[in-house]
Amino acid sequence: MKKILLVALALCLSYGFAYSCLFNHSINLTTKMQNFETDSFTTKNGKSLKITFFKHASLLIEYAGKKFFVDPVSDYADFTQQPKADYILITHEHHDHFDTKAIAAIETPDTKIIANPNCQKMLDKGQAMKNGDILQITPEIKLEAVPAYNTTPGRDKFHPKGRDNGYILTVGGTRIYIAGDTEDIPEMKQIKNIDIAFLPVNQPYTMTPEQAIQSAKTIQPHILYPYHYGDTNINEVKDGLKNEKEIEVRIRALQ
């Protein structure tokens, strides 16, 4: 009986030690094992489209076997556990959008990096796109660089006009607007026929909920994902658009 008790005690202590080690390393293990939210769609040409939401402004868009990572940042995912990138899109050089460690983790010699001019210079590789540039990647994949900047007095220091990019990625006829860090700028009136939009809601750096609501009404996307929203009460955006029957607001873990 004593031997049985001693063995049981030893097993308990061993398990307790193992559990303690697991708990102490839980941040890394959680990152590696975490199941990120994904949404799947059928594009207008009948092919599959999947979007993975890491966190904040980090996304993975998969279409026809091509993987487009947007603003990958190591704080939001363990990118060594992600597939390799065909394309990496960088909006601007702030640390929550531009991370060389994350880029290195998903990059291969064939990966094409596309960034605003500042990030392209900092990386010393890849292709720079400035506001207004258009890149026809394949006959059914097109990328447009669009303006992203602050307009409220005192905020222009965060994102000055002409420096940063938003992107419109068209895949199989489906148009995805990734706004980058911006307020509700006048140029949004020129953004048409958007199927899926990502709008930032994180005052004072990007938009207030009221600005995001106005931007959504201007752009009229079929699906809106508020992103980059930090501690903002993001339900304010959803509530503010409840009467816009053509806009479906989807909340994902993009704080």
TrEMBL record:
<dbReference type="InterPro" id="IPR036866">
    <property type="entry name" value="RibonucZ/Hydroxyglut_hydro"/>
</dbReference>
<dbReference type="InterPro" id="IPR050114">
    <property type="entry name" value="UPF0173_UPF0282_UlaG_hydrolase"/>
</dbReference>
<dbReference type="InterPro" id="IPR001279">
    <property type="entry name" value="Metallo-B-lactamas"/>
</dbReference>
<dbReference type="GO" id="GO:0016787">
    <property type="term" value="F:hydrolase activity"/>
</dbReference>
<feature type="domain" description="Metallo-beta-lactamase">
    <location>
        <begin position="55"/>
        <end position="228"/>
    </location>
</feature>
<protein>
    <submittedName>
        <fullName>MBL fold metallo-hydrolase</fullName>
    </submittedName>
</protein>
<feature type="signal peptide">
    <location>
        <begin position="1"/>
        <end position="20"/>
    </location>
</feature>
<keyword id="KW-0732">Signal</keyword>
<keyword id="KW-0378">Hydrolase</keyword>
<dbReference type="Pfam" id="PF13483">
    <property type="entry name" value="Lactamase_B_3"/>
</dbReference>
